[in-house]
Design goal:
Layout: H1 2-30, H2 38-60, H3 65-75, H4 78-92
């Protein structure tokens, strides 16, 4: 289980760094700091799935979930939305420290 958490953590961290690099590149070209929103990135990757997600969640999960939880997340910077779970997964998947002493 820890290996899966570490693997997913590294994948998400790599994606977060790629998105951050893209944001920094766009900021340099535009002359100001700009971070791509998660919804913006999702729409650029696959717009149809983003458009289908809202009615699917409203119908099959919970009608208020889209507006109350998902829309605010979609407005956050994509690097943060990918980076925070990456760090949490890496922390959860780390190896426990061995407590050594004399005689071990």
């Amino acid at each position: 289980m820890r290996a899966i958490a570490r693997f997913l953590g590294w994948i998400l961290l790599l994606l977060a760094l790629v998105v951050l690099a893209m944001d920094m590149s766009a900021s340099m070209h535009q002359g100001g700091a700009r971070f791509a929103a998660t919804g913006e990135l999702w729409a650029a990757i696959h717009r149809d799935s983003l458009l289908l997600a809202e009615p699917a969640i409203d119908r099959h999960v919970w009608p208020g979930l889209w507006q109350a939880v998902i829309v605010p997340v979609l407005l956050l910077p994509a690097a943060a939305v990918l980076g925070v779970p990456a760090i949490l997964l890496l922390l959860l998947g780390r190896q426990p420290r061995r407590r050594g002493g004399f005689g071990r």
